[in-house]
Structure to design on (416 residues):
């Protein structure tokens, strides 16, 4: 068996066997298969797809490439959630302390940004001192003591995905349903949680552009999870417009904390509603309650301040400095003004995501360094009425802000 045989089969749309998939995953993980060969097979998969069986075999081989975390020493039903990625998606920062405040253990491993979408680990690492690399024992101890831990994909957890994840980002093979499903579910299963809520994004700022694609991805991931003995539920949400008003690592932490503290207005309704839905689903799975009961419980810990207190406890427990959240300065700021009067009909999430990468808030290559303070504040949101000259967005960066980035933000606003 060799990689040339695998290329030949896949480029003609033939299904790879379980043995062939295991050969590829093991070889790429141990370094015997080079990047250029792995890239070729990934592109063939991106173009020709995979059967449900192939996707399951790929997921299973990736799980078996490393360790599987044993969370049995954590009392209670362990819940996790995952988003397929979106622009301004800081939902994890909000729903995990909500669920922990409801006394449900949240054991979550997260990733860094991929493409135009920000990663939860990047956002948390924007907080001075916050530790995302935890040993298995530290992770378990934090969940037992604080009911919450969020860590990066460290140690020997799904090493195949670490390598493939980085390679997909720079080879145009991100938007493949089998590859996305295998990547997400291998990490989720290996992370050891009993239940998983999948937030599948759909729209211009997501990898899945249509509802049909999002539904297919949701069904694929749910089937994999159930085959491997997990309780899984998927929710499809809109990503045609950015979520919330802040895009960028530190900016999104600031917004998440403000929401938990109750410092929000009607312009945050999209973010609030999304977080309540996801948190409610997590609580339903973990506590075995109905939607009405779960939603009331979620809104209760938001209203009484216990979710905000849990966020502070979580940040400090992993070494973060809460005071640093409010210390944000950049060398350059640009205000974007409306060129026409009218109502904001939509804000193209793809263009906003690309602009945030241009500012330094996202990665161009896997080696790119992030500017944690860089990002975009949307002063006007969908449905707002603006006059000519009104500020509709602010751009922040420590490097000079180029005209192309400014033009992208201007073009993202459709004002009718």
């Amino acid at each position: 068996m060799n990689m040339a045989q695998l290329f030949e089969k896949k480029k003609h749309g033939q299904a790879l066997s379980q043995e062939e998939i295991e050969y590829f995953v093991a070889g790429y993980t141990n370094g015997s298969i080079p990047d250029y060969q792995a890239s070729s097979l990934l592109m063939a998969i991106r173009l020709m797809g995979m059967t449900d069986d192939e996707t399951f075999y790929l997921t299973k081989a990736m799980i078996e490439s490393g360790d599987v975390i044993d969370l049995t020493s954590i009392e209670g039903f362990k819940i996790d959630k995952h988003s397929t990625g979106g622009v301004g998606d800081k939902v994890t920062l909000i729903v995990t302390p909500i669920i922990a405040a409801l006394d449900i253990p949240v054991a979550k491993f997260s990733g860094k940004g991929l493409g135009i979408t920000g990663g939860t680990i990047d956002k948390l690492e924007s907080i001075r001192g916050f530790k995302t690399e935890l040993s298995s024992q530290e992770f378990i101890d934090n969940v037992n003591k604080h009911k919450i831990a969020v860590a990066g994909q460290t140690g020997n957890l799904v090493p195949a995905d670490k390598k493939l994840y980085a390679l997909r980002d720079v080879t145009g093979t991100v938007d493949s349903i089998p590859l996305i499903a295998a990547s997400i579910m291998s990490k989720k299963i290996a992370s050891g949680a009993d239940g998983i809520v999948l937030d599948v994004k759909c729209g211009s700022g997501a990898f899945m552009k249509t509802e049909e694609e999002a539904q297919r991805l949701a069904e694929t991931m749910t089937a994999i999870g159930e085959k491997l003995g997990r309780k899984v539920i998927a929710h499809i949400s809109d990503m045609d417009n950015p979520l919330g008003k802040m895009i960028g690592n530190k900016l999104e932490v600031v917004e998440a904390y403000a929401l938990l503290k109750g410092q929000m207005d009607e312009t945050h309704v999209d973010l609030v509603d999304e977080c309540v839905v996801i948190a409610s689903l997590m609580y339903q799975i973990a506590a075995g309650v109905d939607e009405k009961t779960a939603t009331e419980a979620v809104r209760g810990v938001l209203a009484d301040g216990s979710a905000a207190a849990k966020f502070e406890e979580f940040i400090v427990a992993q070494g973060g400095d809460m005071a640093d959240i409010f210390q944000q300065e950049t060398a350059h700021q640009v205000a974007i003004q409306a060129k026409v009067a009218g109502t904001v009909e939509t804000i193209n999430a793809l263009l906003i995501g690309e602009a945030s990468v241009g500012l330094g808030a996202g990665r161009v290559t896997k080696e790119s360094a992030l500017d944690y303070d860089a990002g975009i504040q949307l002063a006007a949101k969908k449905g707002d009425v603006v006059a000519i000259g009104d500020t509709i967005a602010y751009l922040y960066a420590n490097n000079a802000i180029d005209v192309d980035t400014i033009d992208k933000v201007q073009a993202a606003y459709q004002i009718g």
